[in-house]
C-alpha cells in the first residue's frame, strides 16, 4: 500500500528518514512554523523540512504535511 507523501507516519524518526531518503530534508517550508523545542524549551523557527534546535533536537515534517504545524515531529537528539 502506497502511503503517499505524508502517509500516516506519526514517528519523527520515520519522517526524518523518509525526507532524507527522498532528498527533501533541506527543502524550504511553504511557511515558517514557530514552536517551543521540547528538549531545550527555546522558541524554534522551522523554515526547512528538517530542523535542529541549539540543543540538538531534530524535527521533521513531510512536504505534504508542512502547512500543518501539528504534523511536525521530534526525531531525537543529534540524529
What is the 3D shape?
globular
SSE string, helix = H, strand = E?
Answer: HEEEEE
Strand content: 25-35%
**What's the average pLDDT?**
91
Q: Radius of gyration in whole Å, from Cα?
A: 12 Å
Number of helices: 1
- Beginning-to-end CA distance, first to last residue: 28 Å
Give me the count of strands.
Answer: 5
* Order of neighbouring strands in the sheet with most strands: 3-4-5
The low-pLDDT segments are none
Largest beta-sheet characterization: 3 strands, antiparallel
Helix content: 10-25%
List the domain count as a whole number.
Answer: 1
What can you see in these coordinates?
The chain is α+β, with helices and mostly antiparallel strands and 79 residues long. The protein has one domain (12-77). 14% of the residues lie in helices and 34% in strands. It is built from 1 helix and 5 strands; from the N terminus they run H-E-E-E-E-E. The chain has one helix spanning 12-22, and strands spanning 28-36, 43-48, 50-52, 57-60, 73-77. The strands form 2 sheets. Strands 3-4-5 form a 3-stranded antiparallel sheet. The chain starts with 11 loop residues before the first helix and ends with a strand. 22% of the residues are buried.
Features:
single chain, 79 residues, alpha+beta, 5 strands
Topology:
Layout: H1 12-22, E1 28-36, E2 43-48, E3 50-52, E4 57-60, E5 73-77
Antiparallel strand pairs: 1-2, 3-4, 4-5
Describe, in short, the structure shown.
This protein is α+β, with helices and mostly antiparallel strands and 79 residues long.
